[in-house]
Amino acid sequence: MKELLDDGLNDGPPIWAIFGDLMTGLVGVFVLILIWTLGFQLELAKDLELAEAEREQAQARRQVLEEALAGPLASGRITINDGRIGISGSVLFALNSDRLQDEGRELLATLADPLNVFLKENDQLLMISGFTDDLPIQAGNLSFKDNWELSAQRALTVTRELVAAGLPADRVFAAAFGDQQPVAPNRDESGRALNRRVEMAPVPRSTSTEAPLPDA
């Protein structure tokens, strides 16, 4: 009888064997988690290094641009903020006008060559953006319907002047923002004067190709 009972109790696998299999499985899971964690950390470190390299390159490009435009910067005729070149609207244009003043034309002529060199070396385009204050177009001025149109025409005027001064036409394009992106409150004349401006910003050249138009 005792032998029969012993045989019945020993039919299943030993406890230590089950425990060993469980531990082996746990170790395997731990190893997989460890490998994934190490891989994630390596990928994160690589991304951080790439981001830092891009930041340093952008900073170096801005420094080169500032050095190329040292003269206009020193005279206060332009500003550079985060790579954007700002020119006061009063330097370029009279109030509610899109015709360049002599001072503005001379300034753009000095900017064309260093901008051309910078854009070619970095394979970038130049976006010319026009901005206005929030005051409506003065009554009696029939040249422009609103600030959108005024800012667009000013951006186009600067674009054409830079092209005439030697900047390749395929390196520059115009954009209009009206009064939608002020850099100062429009509460007084000093703030409005800051908002009446033209900005030039180098931007990456698009690498995408346009899809062909379908046949008619």
From TrEMBL:
GO terms for cellular component: membrane. The chain crosses the membrane at residues 15-38. Residues 80-206 form the OmpA-like domain. Residues 186-199 have a biased composition (Basic and acidic residues). Residues 41-70 form a coiled coil. SUPFAM superfamilies: OmpA-like. It comes from the Bacteria. Residues 181-216 are annotated as: Disordered. Keywords: Cell projection, Cilium, Coiled coil, Flagellum, Membrane, Transmembrane, Transmembrane helix. Gene3D superfamilies: OmpA-like domain (3.30.1330.60). This is Flagellar motor protein. It comes from Congregibacter litoralis KT71.
